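Dear H.,

Thanks for agreeing to be a second pair of eyes. The structure we're designing against is below in token form, covering all 272 positions.
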């Protein structure tokens, strides 16, 4: 499969449109051993809505990470090792805090027009699977992050037991029954909504939701990976709720989408 042949709306070195006050910033962390490129659907949609989206590949966990100067590092963690996974989660939080340091520093090395476009007083984070767990831990450890989104990730560590003060949105797959969510829900003191997407599976919250039904010719394969929900409905619902949440928390735009079930999105139900 030639993944690089997948057409997107992104362009290398695209110019930044100047805007007074700059644009809110959203960090994105992918799933365990999943490349950040499989979060392109979410990143492009948020960029189109006026956010600067910073996607992060985690070194030694992503299949390959290339540094300036040509240094190339491949994955060293094992998919079947819980020790590796727990260490990777700790490293992810450190990675994301480092990215925050770079973004908020005066001398970042970023192009000046891009740096001036960042509104670092309005920053959020979101992640898929382990990226969602890392987002929760990042918010717990670093108050520069004002809001967080967890896309079907299990909550691990101290944050699951102690909760969060800041606003946090969670989206779950249809059959997700994670006890850490219930514990976390009871301990969260800030704004919170936990939603379930009917017909979705774990990888419905990645670009595989759109790609797998198009490239698989094996009967039943798409539903095994991304569930039975239609890709267009799944993507539309995710985009709507994530965008409404970030607009509410970072831009102060009111919405009724979180008041209860929506006729526009009957696939989405409220948990807790």
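And this is the sequence the design step returned. I haven't edited it by hand at all.
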């Amino acid at each position: 499969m030639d993944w690089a042949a997948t057409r997107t709306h992104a362009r290398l070195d695209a110019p930044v449109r100047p805007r007074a006050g700059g644009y809110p910033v959203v960090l994105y962390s992918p799933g365990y051993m999943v490349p950040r490129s499989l979060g392109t659907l979410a990143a492009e949609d948020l960029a189109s809505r006026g956010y600067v989206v910073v996607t992060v590949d985690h070194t030694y966990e992503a299949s390959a990470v290339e540094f300036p100067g040509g240094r190339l590092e491949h994955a060293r963690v094992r998919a079947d090792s819980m020790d590796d996974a727990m260490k990777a989660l700790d490293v992810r939080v450190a990675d994301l805090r480092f990215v925050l340091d770079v973004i908020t520093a005066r001398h970042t090395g970023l192009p000046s027009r891009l740096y001036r476009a960042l509104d670092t007083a309005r920053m959020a984070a979101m992640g898929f699977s382990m990226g969602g767990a890392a987002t929760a831990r990042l918010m717990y450890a670093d108050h520069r992050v004002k809001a967080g989104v967890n896309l079907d990730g299990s909550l691990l560590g101290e944050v699951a037991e102690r909760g969060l003060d800041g606003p946090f949105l969670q989206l779950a797959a249809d059959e997700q029954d994670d006890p850490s969510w219930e514990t976390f829900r009871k301990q969260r003191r800030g704004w919170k909504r936990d939603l379930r997407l009917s017909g979705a599976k774990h990888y419905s919250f990645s670009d595989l939701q759109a790609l797998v039904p198009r490239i698989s010719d094996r009967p039943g394969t798409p539903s095994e990976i991304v569930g039975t929900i239609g890709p267009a409905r799944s993507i539309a619902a995710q985009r709507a709720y994530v965008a409404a949440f970030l607009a509410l928390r970072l831009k102060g735009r009111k919405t009724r989408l979180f008041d209860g079930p929506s006729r526009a999105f009957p696939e989405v139900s409220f948990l807790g």
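Two observations from my side: The mean pLDDT is 92. The domain at 20-254+265-271 is CATH 3.40.50.1820 (Rossmann fold).

Warmly,
E.
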